[in-house]
Write a structure and sequence with these properties.
This protein is of the alpha+beta class. The protein is built from eight helices and four strands. A hairpin with a 4-residue loop joins strand 2 and strand 3.
Length: 193
């Protein structure tokens, strides 16, 4: 809920016609999508099915939002602000999971092409991710630039990570001399701080 409340509300609250808190709508959409609901109709059905549970949590006091309300919320939320809040939330959650004693963290770096999405040049975009094997959380992502590949994106991804004292794995494409040197330099830099 703290994450959902931290997303800036774009709506005009001075008009007095807001029936649903934005945080409630965000929680509904996240939980529904985590349970496999894809479209807005599925999300609404999920909300109706679990409305009593939401009420016990103090959420959706005015019932389930309409499809047009969900559409306005999805289109109105600042994507970058929400991504920043989600990254903060995931980072805090990741730290809590690590405190539970899962041993030395293993960070897996790998790139994948996004299927079903096509860029202007006709190619599928490539995304490089850093995945925490111990917690199951994606720590950071980096998109490959047009006319580029993983080899150029991995160093930018590593810049986003704290890798001191952690095991870093990657496939052969990412094990270039420059990338390995960057990992060593970053580990040394953190060790001297």
């Amino acid at each position: 809920m703290n994450f959902a409340r931290s997303v800036p509300d774009f709506r005009r609250s001075d008009k007095g016609n807001i029936q649903h808190r934005l945080a409630d709508i965000i929680i509904l959409m996240i939980l529904a999508r985590e349970c496999g609901c894809v479209g807005r109709a599925d999300i609404i059905e999920f909300g109706r099915l679990h409305l009593n549970k939401f009420h016990r949590l103090g959420i959706l006091r005015n019932g389930v939002p309409s499809e047009s309300t969900l559409c306005r919320a999805e289109n109105g939320i600042n994507d970058h602000a929400m991504a920043d809040r989600m990254q903060d939330f995931a980072g805090a959650f990741h730290k809590e999971l690590l405190k539970k004693g899962c041993g030395r963290e293993i960070i897996c770096i790998d790139g994948k092409a996004e299927r079903g999405t096509v860029m202007e040049n006709g190619r599928n975009p490539d995304i490089v991710s850093a995945y925490s094997f111990n917690t199951g959380i994606i720590l950071a992502t980096e998109a490959c630039q047009a006319k580029s590949n993983e080899i150029k994106a991995v160093p930018r991804l590593i810049d986003k990570l704290d890798i001191a004292g952690k095991i870093v794995t990657a496939d052969a494409m990412s094990m270039q001399k420059d990338i390995i040197d960057k990992i060593r330099k970053k580990v040394t830099m953190f060790a001297s701080d």
